[in-house]
Specification:
This protein has about 500 residues and is an alpha+beta fold. The protein is built from 13 helices and 17 strands. The chain has a six-stranded antiparallel β-sheet with strand order 3-2-1-6-5-4, sandwiched between helices. Helix 7 runs antiparallel to helix 10. The longest helix has about 60 residues. The model has no long low-confidence stretch (mean pLDDT about 85).
């Protein structure tokens, strides 16, 4: 029992001796935990501040995408403790730098997308690429096209994350260091967040631009329809507005509208500063020029560079000067027949987008609608005029017949009604009816303010002889002819129309 008691006392003394050491370890662990939590809290606060700043910029700069991307690049470099930050967007088979923060060398602003660089690999594989040391032998073999960013820029560590929208890669965000210092997990994760924010900003700007373009198109269409409504018989104001809006909304240097008939076409409206040679002349439709090709083929023709060797071979007769490089032509088609064309041009090599091509087709349709509207309106007017004239003729005939029935024995009221109806229906200032009596033509009925003049005119005078032999005589200007001297001496009227009365 004594031995057991001694051992127990020994253990108690040992624990008392170890207590300060254990307490010190616990204190150190607690201090480290507090430091780690404080550091993580500070990092979280920085991420939250950066996110808040970017969201504020997005909210206040719906139209200014550049400002948002610049903010994303700056915050990415600062929060991830990188030397610099870059944002790229894909354009076809290339990627274009659209934002940068930092002073490191970046090389070209437009580069081909390839697996032979970390940035290209990130976009093609749709995953983050982290290179710890760009000068490592294995990396030089894996990314052989990275000499510029490795040697010239002095890049040692690089982290690239793709920008993905709805499963499609639209670019990449990249951070770099000039020393070998791999990014840790707390820096890799925020970069993906910044990538998402860049995608949100790009998508937001895209939607805003689409909305703006849609409103502009609706406004342009409304304007054109308003001009159509206010000019039902005059096509020129409508075509002028169509050309103006086509140039503005398609971001072209100019726009021209052409009409065609048979094998000729001619300019009817234009807007812009590029000169159009021989604009007052009609010209032959030929396949050796873009407009002619569009008219012949009934299809849109898009020439990226009119001065390129291929274009020179395909369109040898096209107008060429340093002022014109890119050309887009769309035919005007009504019921399957080409009635003209609308073309827009640019002074630099900058092909039109699919949206702009579709928009030009819409303007072509509006021009056709305007032309058809004017044609139909004029046809209706002409038809109404014909019906009105027919009704006036019927009314005049009915009046004369009524007078005849009321005056079976007195011809004078009938003759008076005939000359009055002739003046009214034909829109004539003065009408006189002469009848053949003996060797003279004497006045029997008159309506109008022009004096009768000679009461008798010989039947042998040139105008009476001509009417007797040939029928109706029309002299547009009695002073500009010499065949009928008696008429030429009259000063009270200028135009003469005579018709015979036959049994």
């Amino acid at each position: 029992m004594k031995s057991t008691s001694k051992k127990s006392s020994s253990r108690k003394l040992s624990r008392k001796a170890q207590a300060p050491s254990i307490q010190k370890k616990h204190s150190t662990a607690s201090s480290q935990l507090v430091d780690r939590l404080q550091r993580e809290l500070a990092e979280a606060q920085l991420r939250e501040n950066a996110t808040s700043e970017i969201l504020r910029v997005i909210a206040s700069s719906a139209e200014d995408l550049q400002r948002v991307l610049d903010s994303v690049a700056e915050n990415a470099a600062r929060l991830c403790e990188a030397t610099d930050s870059l944002i790229f967007r894909i354009e076809g088979d290339f990627y274009q730098r659209v934002a940068k923060y930092g002073s490191m060398y970046t090389g070209g602003t437009r580069l081909p997308i390839t697996f032979r660089t970390p940035i290209g690999r990130a976009m093609l594989d749709r995953q983050t690429i982290h290179v710890h040391d760009m000068k490592a032998d294995a990396i030089a073999i894996q990314f052989p096209d990275s000499e510029a960013i490795r040697d010239t820029a002095g890049t040692r560590t690089i982290l690239a994350t793709p920008l993905v929208r709805e499963g499609n890669v639209i670019g990449a965000i990249v951070i770099r260091r000039q020393q070998v210092e791999p990014f840790n997990d707390r820096q890799v994760a925020p970069l993906k967040t910044f990538a998402d924010q860049a995608v949100i900003a790009i998508e937001n700007a895209r939607l805003f631009q689409e909305l703006k373009e849609s409103l502009e198109q609706q406004t342009a269409t409304s304007h054109i329809l308003g001009v159509i409504a206010s000019s039902p018989t005059d096509i020129q104001p409508v075509l002028d507005v169509v050309a103006q809006n086509a140039a503005r909304l398609c971001d072209a240097s100019d726009a021209s509208i052409w009409r065609t008939e048979g094998d000729k076409y001619w300019l009817v409206a234009s807007h812009g500063s590029i000169p159009i040679p021989r604009s007052e002349e009609s010209r032959p439709v030929t396949r050796s020029i873009p407009s002619g090709r569009a008219i012949f083929d009934k299809e849109t023709v898009h020439v990226h560079d009119i001065l390129s060797p291929d274009s020179l071979a395909e369109f040898p007769e096209a107008f060429r000067s340093g002022a014109v490089r890119t050309v887009l032509v769309t035919p005007l088609i009504r019921e399957g027949l080409v009635i003209g064309a609308i073309h827009i041009r640019r002074t630099e090599v900058r092909p039109f987008s699919e949206k702009q091509i579709a928009l030009l087709k819409t303007f072509a349709d509006q021009a056709v609608i305007a032309m058809e509207n004017v044609r139909l309106f004029k046809e209706i007017q002409e038809r109404n005029s014909e019906l009105r004239e027919a009704l006036e003729h019927q009314t005049a005939t009915s009046e004369v017949l009524g007078i005849i029935s009321r005056s079976p024995t007195d011809v004078q009221p009938v003759l008076d009604a005939i000359v009055e109806s002739a003046a009214r229906v034909c829109g004539i200032d003065d009408v006189m009816m002469r009848l053949h009596e003996g060797n003279a033509m004497v006045p029997r009925a008159h309506f109008g303010s022009i004096p009768i003049g000679r009461p008798e005119i010989s039947i042998h005078e040139p105008q009476n002889r001509w009417i007797g032999e040939h029928g109706t005589l029309h002299v547009p200007d009695i002073r500009a002819q010499h065949d009928f001297p008696t008429l030429a001496s009259v000063t009270s009227f200028r135009t003469y129309l005579g018709a015979p009365l036959r049994h």
